[in-house]
Amino acid sequence: MPSPRLAVEIGALRLKTPIIAASGCFGYGVEYAHAVDLASLGGVAVKGLFLAEREGHAPPRIVETPGGMLNAIGLQGIGVHRFVREKLPELRRLGATTIVNVCGSTIDEYCEVSRVLSDHEGVHAIELNISCPNIKEGGIQFGCSLNGTYDVVSAVRKVTSLPLIPKLTPNVTDVASFARAAEEAGSDAISLVNTFLAMAIDVETRRPKLTNVMGGLSGPAIRPIAVRMVYECHQAVKLPIIGMGGIATVEDALEFIIAGASAVQVGTANFVDPFIWKTLTDGLDLYMTRHNIARVRDLVGTLQVPGREHAWTES
Amino acid sequence: MPVDVRAEVLSNTRLSSDYNVLALAAPEIGRIAKPGQFVMLKTAEGLDPLLRRPFSIFEILRSDDGTVAGISLLNKRVGAGTSLMFDAEPGAHMHVLGPLGQPFVPVDPPSEAWMVAGGVGLAPFATLAEALVERGTPMTLFYGARSASDLYYESWFERLGARLALTTEDGSRGERGRVTLPLDRALAARPSGSPVTIYACGPTPMMRAVAELGARASRPVFVSLEPVMGCGMGGCYSCVVPVRHGAGSHFVRSCLEGPVFDAASVVWSGLVAHA
Fold first, then answer.
1. Which CATH homologous superfamily contains domain A4-298?
2. Are residues B124 and B96 part of one domain?
3. Which of A141, A167, A215, B119 is deepest in the core (most CB within 10 A)?
4. How many contacts does A have with B, using Cβ atoms within 8 A?
């Protein structure tokens, strides 16, 4: 088990470590149970769930790009009812801190999925997916509009007392304003960033490399932009932030924490190394010893900008 | 349970200007691997290439005293990662994650086993052939390639007791044409009372053709598919294959439910269109 000093609180959500497996990159968590002790992770953000099952897009669904990858999975999934029946009991038995990524084509669907999850033991938080770039209806439609973000979050807020964490898209001009909308609507935290809408083309055939034409860019290539966005949101809201985008080493995770993230999620790097969790957890513990830091939260948002009392977004 | 081994390159045998056999010191994987399973290989440290790629385990390598020393991979140079594999020198290291996936189930006598390989699709059949020999199952290798210089290891299979049916597209060795030609004839000549199980691996159109021949002759066919894969562990849902489901089809992850599939369950039209 991880050292107690790695424990963090995201509102009412208590995590053993600040390191969470990112939604869409870790199946329903149970796929990894034979290789990874799920209870040793800060949390497991399971694959996005609608009310009904979904088939997703036709392959090819991924393509590697410099320092990253594009994906257009299309939120293939088993739906919330099968999830609570077939996966949740196993996650509970394994001692996972389960964060369920909730999707919807309509506000009603977001609410209904959240309601079902709220009725079951073993769900520790809801991450609202208003940022998937790969589906036509719902998702990013809400996440790219300030009113849409506010409306989804406030509607779901009314139907659940679970910690509510909207996952923001980076595909907007001013991500901080979306963080504020999420805060005003009653979020307990925010997570960011989802993937960047992107494309790759086979020039010989002049065809897109993904069947869906466009996909979401993830991996180390996006990390500096994601760190900047977490920093901007940290300046803009009081909400705890779960940061993500290309984290592959403990130094990467620390960048997000120092920029203002109370916890982080790791996605693409888990594809490269499914045993990365222990490396990151041990590395964080070592860093805290080396810098004489008692609790992770003492590190959150501690960016030192030489010669500046206030960060530039406030000036 | 899969393990991740930082494996030393023991040897790299270039078979031609495109094909090589890479021997990796991963005994932890070799000891538990079953025929047809695969590994996810990270050919270089760092970000380029970033993702691992799937490879069928070719041989289980054994020392003189019989202990497992590692595994080998049959590689064809086509892109960045496979070029690194082709150029790798002994002493280099690569991360190998495995064994992964559903294995071939070797059939027992009195059934015969017919293995149908196209090009680098020979890879999963060395371990299968060894398992078949252990069971005493009579086996035939139908093996096709572009030309004589692209056929490898056929004498290895012959020494193990496999009958060979070789084809090349240019006729430089064996029969001229596709590997499905001798398979089709053999199926037609086979009395319906004597059981045969067919195993196939190669280009998708070849596997589809084998699946159709097998279905027509009412013979079971198992294929080892090779879709684009992201993680190999069931995390990413990239490697899906359409399989029959009720009246329609359903995407399943080939890293978990494959790479070996009952060919009759695969919706080939969906696979070929997007492969």
1. Aldolase class I (3.20.20.70)
2. no
3. A215
4. 100
